[in-house]
Amino acid sequence: MRDTLVTVPGTVNKRKQAEIDYPAAIGEDGRAWLRSKPFGNTPRESARLLVDFGYVLQLLDLRAGMSLCELGCGSGWMTRFAARHGLQAEGYDISPDMIEIARELAREEGLDARFEAADYEELDLGRRFDACLLYDALHHSPRADLVFATARRALKPGGRILLAEPNWKHRFQGRDAAGEYGVTELGYTPRRLKQLLRAHGFTEIRRFHNTRKRLYSNAPRDVLEHLAEPLVYRALGPFWTQIWLRARAS
Amino acid sequence: MPPDDRKQAEIDYPTAIGEEGRGWLRKKPFASIPDETARLLIDFAHVVQLLELEPGMSLCELGCGSGWISRLATRHGVRAEGYDISPEMIEIAREVAAEEGLDVTYDVGDMEQLDLGRRFDTCLLYDALHHSPRADLVLASARRALRPGGRILLAEPNWAHRFAGRKASDAYGVSELGYSSHGLKRLLREQGFREIQRFHPVRKRLPSNAPRDVARHLAGPLVQRSLAPFLSQIWLRATAT
User: What are phi and psi of B68, to 5 degrees?
Assistant: First the structure.
């Protein structure tokens, strides 16, 4: 259903327009968060994002000198971190406001990261990247198929894609944002995403499982939670954890 | 080694390690191999969680080296100050902060003697304590820096570092010790810290669906626990009275 969505004339533009307008719609506080991201939030949330970037480095095996494109980069914090890591990093987002924020911050931080406004359902970057990242981005489009085609067109043969997505329950959790700003907040199942990746010429598709992203103390409760962690994540995986998928472009 | 020699070795360290070593000091935590950069960033995330760092809080980092943690903390909105015995380290730290447009205070100071006047919410010793054989003096400095109720966090390699660190200590004369968690807890108590809590390291990576990865992940907590005395990081958090 998701990728065969029947498009009533005008609706596609409306959903894309909502993504474009998002930074203007969320007010001063929201924009401040876009600028400070991943920092300046609650300890838990800032830590979560920083740990996730650590995972991105490991899973894409990112080393200085490699090239990375991030699709749906928003205000571009991961692209900027990647540039700091020595990568040729480029970030693309449909919202010119987002790209403007991203460029401003890169300039302030003295970073050589490139940002362009573009629709990740249509972009053609010419098979030149070692790695492509979709972090919390895919669920903003009902056309994951088109986004994967873009990612494939961006990657060198043998290049790798990594995606980190909320689970399908995000369809419900994301309703606030969807209702308020008209943005798209979907949730895909890992099975569906794997199938789409295969259909778009990706191989070596591998799923990774989430962790608690925190240290545990000697307190009995903490120890117990930690020991149970792998089992709990496995058992509840289908319902509430992040989906991480990595694949190779043929 | 006489105290002055060992301190001089720490002061001279940035000069001794050459251009490439100093390049790493400037780029840290970035631009290393993926595992190492990820490890450091994830450790910073643990620091944020364990000290519950929120914008507006104050942090002093003792033995900050080239100051990458203090810079990330500043980006997080924390008023961060970094202290290190080596003027050259402090110079690098200030330069990099200026390049990144960050307002961080860095000062040269001997972590065994500093008196910062009980004004900080939090104090961090990340991979720093094992550069001094006088952990008691360092923890006294930390206590003098913290307001009553303020919290200290230390992350240290294990006592195995006494052996693992030999290469650096032989080459540069710097101190590379390793404390046991038991010894550190006792010292913290003696220096007036309470609510001492130990935290255990995790594998810092995501497990895939491959059978080997799954098995490792399931065994992770048990392995980390049983081998902890030998090979894992020590994380201790405590509250200053």
Answer: -65, -35
